Amino acid sequence: MHPTIDAPIYELMRDNTATAFYTTRGKISSPQSPYDGFNVCGYTGDSSVHITKCRAALSAFTGIRPERIIMPRQTHSINVASITAKNLHEVSLEHTDAIVTDIRGLIIGVNTADCVPAIFSDSQAGIIGIAHAGWRGALNGIIENTLHAMIRQGARPENIKTAMGPSICQACFEVGTEVAEMFDDGCVDRITWEKPHVSLHGHIAKAIISQGVPESNIQKFDNSLCTHCHTDRFFSARTLGIGSGRVFTFIIMQ
Q: Terminal CA-to-CA distance of the chain, rounded, Å?
């Protein structure tokens, strides 16, 4: 199949043979139209024809066959799928919010629309990972579980490089008092705005550091990647609703 959609894909992080990317909406005619733009997520209500065209464009851009593009069915869980050559065709991706693998030439990615996609790479051990972290998953341990899975496969915390892809910034992430109270005070701003605002990126960075990854290995989040600030570039569930397209953040190890 020849793709009829250009793939609006940009590099997020490079770690020797591992490279992470994210998608944008690309050329759109209506920012308020929930599926107008590049979308490969198949479970949020978009048409199968559109999704198939976008996945074909993703495959053409990366040179990776569609069957080697792995994405989980996310449910805000803390479940991690550890994929190896032995279980590649057997591992379940249902009710899963993170993937870890040591297989080269395999795309692993998550779909988000305000939640944080966190990517991980230990190029020395040849292990990569990616996690979908909304506020529930972040609080319940999806980041820690992803790092534990990488370490079980042979990664070393001091060698893990990490970055966070397009997601909602603290200035946009207004929450209720009951949610704010679940976060460390250092991740909550109760002064600048009328209601509390949480830094998911700050919370996730603390979780990563708690597992032994050096702070210097964490790429600082770029606020120009805020999904809520830039709905002309990114899908945002807070703006468009949960029945909308998704940003696809992914990592490949060659």
A: 24
Residue 98's SS3 state is: strand
> Would you say 241 and 231 are in contact if contact means Cβ atoms under 8 Å apart?
no
Q: For residues 179 and 41, what is the distance between their CA atoms, to the nearest angstrom?
A: 28
Cα–Cα distance measured from residue 82 to residue 157, given in angstroms and rounded to the nearest whole number:
17
Q: DSSP characters for 62-86?
A: HT--GGGEE--B--S---EEEE-TT
Residue at 36: amino acid letter = D
The DSSP 8-state label assigned to residue 49 in this structure reads H
pTM of this structure: 0.96
Distance CA 58, CA 9 (A): 8
Whether the CA torsion 224, 230, 234, 238 is positive or negative: it is: positive
pLDDT per residue as tens, the chain (254 positions): 344 578 999 999 999 999 999 999 999 999 999 999 999 999 999 999 999 999 999 999 999 999 999 999 999 999 999 999 999 989 999 999 999 999 999 999 999 999 999 999 999 999 999 999 999 999 999 999 999 999 999 999 999 999 999 999 999 999 999 999 999 999 999 999 999 999 999 999 999 999 999 999 999 999 999 999 999 999 999 999 999 999 999 999 99
